Amino acid sequence: MKNSERMYHIGLTKDDLCGARHAILPGDPGRVEKIASLLCNPRKIGVNREYTSYLGELKGQNVLVISTGMGGPSTAICVEELALLGVEYYIRVGTCGGMQMDVLAGDIVIAQGAIRQEGTSREYLPIEYPATADFDCLLALRESAEELGAASHMGVVQCKDSFYGQHSPETMPIAKELESKWKAWIAGGALASEMETAALYTVCSVRRLHGAAVLLVVWNQEREAAGLGNDTKFDMELAIKVAIKAIEKLL
Length: 251
Hints:
By secondary structure, the protein is an alpha/beta fold. 33% of the residues lie in helices and 29% in strands. The protein has a 5-stranded mixed beta barrel with strand order 5-9-8-6-10. β2 and β3 form a beta hairpin. α3 packs parallel to α7. The two termini are 25 Å apart.
């Protein structure tokens, strides 16, 4: 493809990326500028739909920061189009809700694998195929979290398409199924719930890319239901720093 050919959804070209092979993927477009401000020479390169893009530098190399929007479909589109532009490494930085009692608001979760309770990944691979992180990316995140002194957990996260299917399952016609599966995920040790990582990992597997995710725990509904202490945390700074430090290790 030509360097000037613009991707339909993310609105970027190879020329825009200036050879960047590494990307940081927040879900929220509002977080892109904050992340980019921690890089050297950040500059805005695009806004199209849910995809806001900045380019910056780490260790003299260009690094892309681009939002994916919410959920698997827009995440998969973003990764597919970035892959066509030459991006190979993807670190998602986002939020999640804790599922285990010891996963507290403000903690960091590094997703080793993801439960594919969503629809996007099913259009790539049979459901029996696991959604797993790239080992080098995972190791870079774990080392970065340790070096920054973050309270962190590494393991499996649950991914879904319906936010309210999780938070108000009793209002859904398939309430029994949703509640039964939720209990099963917890019994199996799932750390937290979110909406994008299963799609990211599955697309990376199919397209031979490298990806991992680091997530801030904003709340824990299981602790709330049990009447335990349960603060709400929205400060993404530590998770963002873990992601950037991991990218530095991967360069």
